[in-house]
């Protein structure tokens, strides 16, 4: 079982890509699963994150506030602004623009921690930034979506805040409580969590893609291009910010990956819950979920040499 889980975690990008291709070409394979299951699945991923966090992960926030502040400021400025500029530059339809902006305004994804580790970056900083940006998300994500997309669509900021608390914050807290009061069980299941999260992410991608297969076939290429640019520019600008502020190479790698990799599952979930009238808004999150696992693996290979220099 352990070998199977290691295989799944190692080939996460390829598995997500395969699931997305199957869902696109054969929508019936996933369309039978309703979109409402996305929220509980995302909650399971956040619960898994809570199981793997420890008090030491939060101590880095207090012991290195400057580094955390730099990373979070970059996270919540670079990616939202890039999303807005790319949506404008490519004249995206309102629904697709909303989806790209949703991705840009979300906190960093948990996959960034794995990629930072593989890239030989500052893992403690990466975990600290993910935890901090996730805790800030209930306030900052709805506010940023309102600022960026409020002129295009009606944005229920309070509803989005509560959704993020229910889907993200609450499961993480429950995971932390499990870890605190059931340490033996937590230690037994922790080695299997990366594979579990990978499978859940792949299913979420399959559901979103299958329910939007026709629309994705029509406008997929432009969305893929915008998502790729958004992600790659996030990596590049995040690394450049670290260099300009004279951070060490491992810290630059952590900031780069944390800025470039978004919690796209949350973006898809928010699109389903709050923008059901705009079904195309689901697509950028689904595409990002596939692409950032591919780009993350490539970035880890490239940045590992940078962090060692």
Order of helices and strands: HHHHHHHHHHHHHHHH
**Mass-distribution shape:** globular
Cα end-to-end separation? 37 Å
Strand runs, count: 0
Sheet with the most strands, sense and barrel status: none
Question: What structural class should be given to the helix and strand makeup?
Answer: mainly alpha
pLDDT averaged residue by residue? 82
- Low-confidence sequence ranges: none
Strand content: under 5%
What is the CA-atom radius of gyration, in angstroms?
Answer: 18 Å
> Count of helical segments?
16
| Helix percentage range | over 70%
Describe the structure.
- With 309 residues, the protein is mostly helical.
- 83% of the residues lie in helices and 0% in strands.
- The chain has 16 helices and no strands.
- The protein has helices at residues 2-10, 12-25, 28-31, 38-52, 55-63, 65-89, 94-105, 111-118, 123-149, 157-181, 183-189, 193-211, 213-244, 249-260, 264-274, 282-308.
What's the helix and strand layout?
Blueprint (H helix, E strand, L loop, with lengths): L1 H9 L1 H14 L2 H4 L6 H15 L2 H9 L1 H25 L4 H12 L5 H8 L4 H27 L7 H25 L1 H7 L3 H19 L1 H32 L4 H12 L3 H11 L7 H27 L1
Helix pairs in contact: 1-12, 2-12, 2-16, 4-10, 4-12, 5-9, 6-7, 6-9, 6-13, 6-14, 7-9, 7-15, 7-16, 8-9, 8-14, 8-16, 9-10, 9-14, 10-11, 10-15, 12-16, 13-14, 13-16, 14-16, 15-16
């Amino acid at each position: 079982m352990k070998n199977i889980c290691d295989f799944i975690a190692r080939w996460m990008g390829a598995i997500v890509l395969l699931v997305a291709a199957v869902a696109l070409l054969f929508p019936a394979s996933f369309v039978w699963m309703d979109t409402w299951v996305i929220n509980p699945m995302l909650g399971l991923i956040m619960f898994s994150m809570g199981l793997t966090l420890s008090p030491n992960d939060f101590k880095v926030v207090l012991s290195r506030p400057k580094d955390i502040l730099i990373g979070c400021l970059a996270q919540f400025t670079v990616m939202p602004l890039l999303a807005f500029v790319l949506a404008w530059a490519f004249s995206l339809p309102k629904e697709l623009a909303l989806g790209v902006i949703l991705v840009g305004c979300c906190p960093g994804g948990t996959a960034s921690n794995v990629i930072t580790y593989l890239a030989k970056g500052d893992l403690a900083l990466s975990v600290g930034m993910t935890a901090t940006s996730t805790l800030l998300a209930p306030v900052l994500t709805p506010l940023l979506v309102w600022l960026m997309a409020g002129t295009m669509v009606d944005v229920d900021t309070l509803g989005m805040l509560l959704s993020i608390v229910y889907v993200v914050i609450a499961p993480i807290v429950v995971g932390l409580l499990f870890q605190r009061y059931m340490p033996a069980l937590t230690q037994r299941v922790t080695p299997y969590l990366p594979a579990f999260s990978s499978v859940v992410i792949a299913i979420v991608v399959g559901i979103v893609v299958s329910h939007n297969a026709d629309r994705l076939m029509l406008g997929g290429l432009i969305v893929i291009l915008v998502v790729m640019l958004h992600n790659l520019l996030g990596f590049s600008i995040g690394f450049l910010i670290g260099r300009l502020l004279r951070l060490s190479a491992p810290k630059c790698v952590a900031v780069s990956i944390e800025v470039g990799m978004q919690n796209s599952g949350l973006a898809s979930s928010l699109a389903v819950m709050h923008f059901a009238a705009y079904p195309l808004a689901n697509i950028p999150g689904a595409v990002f979920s596939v692409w950032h696992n591919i780009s993350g693996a490539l970035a880890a290979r490239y940045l590992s040499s940078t962090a060692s220099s």
